[in-house]
Amino acid sequence: METKNKKSFGTQKLDDERRVRVLSPGMLVFKRFVRNKLAITGLAILIVMFAFAFLGGLVSPYTQSQVFKHDEEIMKEYATCMLSTDFRYTVREGAEFPDAARATAVLAISKGDASFTYGDKTYSLVKEGDEFYTFGDALMIAKTRTLAGKFSVDALPETGFVASPEFVAAAEAAVASRSAQFEADGTFYTLINEGKSSSIYHVEPIALASKLVVDPYNESQTSLTTSFAFRYAAELASVRGEKEFELDGTRYVVTGEENDMVVSTMDGEPICSISDILVSPNANDIFLTAEFKAVIRETIRAKETKFVYVDETGENVDYRIDRVNTTYTVRTLKESRVITMFDFPSPQHLLGTDSNGMDVLTRLMYGGRISLMVGFVVVFLETLIGIVLGGISGYFGGWVDTAIMRFVDLFNCIPFYPIVMIIGTVMDKMEIDPIKRIFILMAVLGILGWTSIARVVRGQILSLREQDFMVATEATGIRVSRRIFKHLVPNVMPLLIVQATMSLGGIIITEATLSFLGLGVKYPLASWGSIINAATNVHVMTNYWFIWIPAGLLIVLTVLGFNFVGDGLRDAFDPKMKR
Length: 579
What we know:
Shape: elongated
Structural class: alpha+beta
């Protein structure tokens, strides 16, 4: 019987392994933690969040800054029209008419002068028609005199000019009527009155100024239609009401009105259109034919807003004309490569795309990395600074404790959000790189948030430094730094772990708030807060739920997870809890 009892007692004996397993403080904390269902739930949430953020980006086929586009027909600006209000100059081949001379010419036109001087040259100014002027080199060929009521013309011998009776009669009539110009023998002359005598100049046109726009019907005709001779002959014929003109042995026909005419060959082949409405393409690769421009002008003059034009492939294309003051914009449907903005969830994009055409799910994964990384780094900085200053303050006490605590009070007086807003504005002004901006943000949050941890460490060390094990460390001559960080701080670590875990959620919310306000993570990098920032207007919030609700849920779940784990650790480290 005694043997049986001894054997039974021996089965209950604790061996070394069992004693360690049962009595180890770490095992006790672990068992208490795993018994807490909320703590396990929080831990499971955090594991899922970390896997989503750090592993999800590895399996995602997209990157956080990848922009998605698609082909779509949209109304695009095709051409712009406006009434031509500026003079356009055409200079004769081989002649010179500098820009400064053109500015002087505009002033002379406004004054109604018949000539003007630029530099050492005198130019004649002939008004050929309404808003149509020619400029020429003035060569004096004769002078007029009136003595005793008798008019005479003296030709300058060096010019070789001979005054015909018709010329003399025309000059006398011009002097009598005080005209600045007259025509004789089919040539225009300029007359400058000098009192009792006048000077007659022969004008050789070297340039013209007109507000009309010339549009060739074919690109191969551009050199002809932009030449001085062609434009001068065409506009002069229109001003004089002539229906035909000849140039270099070729006759041309002028049809239409003065401000909207077409020049064609005698065979009926159109050469160019001349109009007071300027039509220009909105892209360099677009060539607008004269026929197309003519249709636009007809539509504008008819005060219509739509027209149909047959393109080079024979298809009917619809165009729309929008007017803003004196400018007309021609638009048409064009297939374009556009950004896929606010695309609803689909098999390709499980949570759709955002306002920049980026995959929301992928940005949530990469954004989680930044949000979690910011939380851990900031908590590490806070804890490190708090342990060092709190440990020194609590161990030494006296004036050292007073100085450090007043420094803590000073830090607590710093307004957090105004300081962060100022720093964010400075970084925006300096255009800090988005990656560097994250590190600056973490440093600022860590430096401004260590005071509470320092107070906790100080309070714990003040009570621990008088205990027997600290007296033993002093007796053995261990240096001060080793006493603080080797013997005191480890006894405070359970409390610090709990506080750090619970403050992680607050840091993540702070980072999300700053990013939402535009002070944190910047484009193209993503964080959960910056993703929610896209929903800053009612339209996005009410119509595109997939932009902001998933990010908000991730923040809520992560913060809850850290809080649950923090509560579980606090209960597990509590020595008064029953086993």
